[in-house]
Amino acid sequence: MKTGQYGWGWHSENTSTFTDKPILLDLGLVKLNLSKNMYSSPLDFASDVRLVFENAMLYNPKTDEVHGMAHQLLSYFEMLFRPIQAKLPTDQRVNEFSVVYEFD
């Protein structure tokens, strides 16, 4: 995801500032945490990835390019994560319909 069309905005090497509000997590930190085995489950990893994109949508208006990119990348991530989640025990799955992304 970091190397795709919209990848420039989602990792720590990015020097652009999207908002004046800090976003404490980026895909660079997620990658670092993953490489250091900091996630106890795939759901913890997915939660951080979602947080990156949710923050971008929360702190940028719907008319902003960053909001649109975050929405597309979140949808793409969810599509890629679905088969992984399906392999988890039932009690560890996130109900897809319980996650609602509505940001103004």
Automatic annotation (TrEMBL):
Alphabetical UniProt keywords: Bromodomain
Domain of life of the organism encoding this protein: Eukaryota
Name of the protein in its database record: Putative bromodomain-containing protein
PROSITE patterns: BROMODOMAIN_2 (PS50014)
Organism: Helianthus annuus
Pfam families tied to this protein: Bromodomain (PF00439)
Source taxonomy: Eukaryota, Viridiplantae, Streptophyta, Embryophyta, Tracheophyta
All residue ranges annotated as the Bromo domain in the record: 25-67
InterPro entries: Bromodomain (IPR001487), Bromodomain-like_sf (IPR036427)
DNA-binding keyword on record: no
